[in-house]
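User: Second chain of the day. Same drill as before.
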Amino acid sequence: MTRVCRFNDNRFGIVEGSEVVDVTAALHVLPSVRWPIASSDLLVEHLDSVLKAAIPLMPRGERHPVDSVRFLSPVANPSKVMAAPVNYLKHQAEANADGGKNFAKDVKTIDEYGLFLKATSSIVGFGEGVEIAYPERRTDHEIELVAVIGKGGRRISRQQAAKHIAGYCLGLDMTLRGTEDRSLRKSLDSFAVVGPWLVTADEVSNPNALALSLDVNGQRRQQATTADLIFDVFRLVEYASAFYTLYPGDLIFTGTPEGVGPVVAGDTINCAIEGIAAARILVRRAS
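Assistant: Same format as last time:
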């Protein structure tokens, strides 16, 4: 399995077993850039070349235990973060059963809502933690599979979508509850958690059949499978590219299942997606 990561002081690594191998020297193959900078994430756009350069570095690369490094988002510069609202029917049901207390009333599905955007400034890695900026309001966790675009395009068909995906990450779409627009409440700093690494698409045989789970302080909150997605991963690529030009490094948060609930400063979130990663992240009060 090819798992690439960004860690500590923007080091580039490949995860091998329980270790991260530092292959930062492979980044020398990236082209130099001048202003204005292109919309693509440079690493994702040239990932094949970087991995080819990294292979001979693996035997002598410095090794670190996975638990000893600080994981940053493996994608540093996406042009946009797209997200799918209410893409699981059971999540719609729990939202409507809430009676408008924490969710909107008469919640519909992605069929009617389409996609929304999160600020790129909200992106963090699992080693950076989630910040609670408004402790007097409810902040919720939402585990999601994140698809990373590898080949850009417009009007990509569902049948061709897989060819445009570089890989997949574990994601948390954190949400501040309230009456403001969804994109505002989901774009606070640290509210788009991505990582802890990127698993290349060739290692994921079917992204539409992955088990996912989330625990808070050891108690299970969310458990489902991406087979329950209303718009599956490839349909989301098709849909997004009908409205936006997609660029390498763009992120698609594919939606969260039922079990969404609140977190507060001091909580520990453990989450996992089959074949992608299992990771822990700490919740803290914003400084």
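Helices lie at 42-45, 47-54, 89-97, 110-113, 182-185, 233-243.

User: Great, on to the next one.
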